[in-house]
Amino acid sequence: MDGIIAGIDVVTRELLLFAGAGLLIGGLDDLLVDLLYLVRRIGFRDAAPLCCDNLPPPTVSGRMIVFIPAWDEAEVIGAMLTTALARFDHADYRLYVGLYPNDPATIGAAADVAERDARVRLVIGGRNGPTTKADCLNSLWHALERDRNVEAFAVKAIVLHDAEDVVHPAELSVFDSLIEGRAVVQLPVLPLVVPGSRLVSGHYADEFSESHRKQLVVRTWIGAGMPLAGTGCAIAPAMLAEIAARRGGDPFDSTSLTEDYELGLRIAELGGEGLFARVTDTDGEIVAVRAFFPADLVASVRQKARWMTGIALVGWDRTGWGRPMALGDHWWRLRDRRGPLAMLVLAAAYLGLFADALAIVLHAVENVARPPIDAGLRWLFLANGLLLWWRLAVRMRFTGRTYGVREAFWSLPRFIVGNFVALAAAPRAMIRYLLILRGQPVMWDKTRHVFPDMAPPP
User: What is the pLDDT of residues 151-176, one digit of tens each?
Assistant: First the structure.
């Protein structure tokens, strides 16, 4: 038994040392983002916040085009289109809905709305689904080009939305103003907390609160390419046309799992200016996209695995390190790709804690003194403890600013839930990545969506 206990002590020490070093590196990396955010806040504290009342009026006219790709979305597409038509406060827009010939239920639900409103244009692709979201978007692009040639209308911006989104009434007006002189404008995405799933669905609210209130702000400030969220973003048609010309006619890469992420980086590489816009409406509410995210663990793990595969693994192969000597961009792409390694560190931490607990029990049962903890490890644990405290405080702060005090306190247990989801997603992502390397075709790995039915802002 003494040999077993000694072996567990060694394993515990090595696991905690590896995990402690990895957590320290990651914690300092996150701390640097926080410090840059504070520096920017202090430096721009006198700048007037953007609001609908002080946006410059548009000087160039043109139709706002909204792309909505839809595969197996019969349960939500009708409500989404009806709500968007009722909410959008803009004089000239058209909704292009991408559909598949082997998805009659979604076609029927979208057609019911299109029959009542000429601003809805149904585009049924030539291939059976599911292909990829990017492939569906390409079908919409080509349909728009055909319509422009026939009807000779000008396009001001192309807006991307998902079939489950609740749009803000002022969204198109904001894009109409801010897209001038820019290649892309991204609005915040605010996940709605699903009733009865505060822990699973709510952890998206915490993550997006930090990402879209802090991380994207810092990322664009230091000159790194701005990845798109795949929804709530407006792209200048000239930029999409340029990308399409460089890619043989298709602006969206149909072989990509995360075409939105890659498109944002590609726009930055081509010199296109991007803006992450936090704009308040006349009631003081953020102009943002709101939607329900996965409410159960299985769906959440699938979604996080797709993101991890597309951004951290396949995305690394596809996008490289970007512009030469763009240190800010290199740093942030490294942050994008740290997910699999971070999950390895996190797994080691949890295993180390379990091994430590087991060692404590065995030492007590056998009445054997535990070996002393090295002074270096003590300092490492102390530093990580302080960084964890800071991380949780920052998470609570950003969640609270977006969703209120109650959700801020819920963000603490959701921090653990988010770790569990990411840990479960990592092996799935790695397996899928290996299958793609072996030639498996990329397909639309989507989850079942629920429409909030005119959900109010949180």
Answer: 999 999 999 999 999 999 999 999 99
pLDDT in tens, 6-17: 778 788 888 989
Cβ within 8 Å of residue 453, ≥6 positions away = 79, 83
pLDDT, residue 112, reads 96
Give the span between the Cα atoms of 390 and 131, in whole angstroms. 43
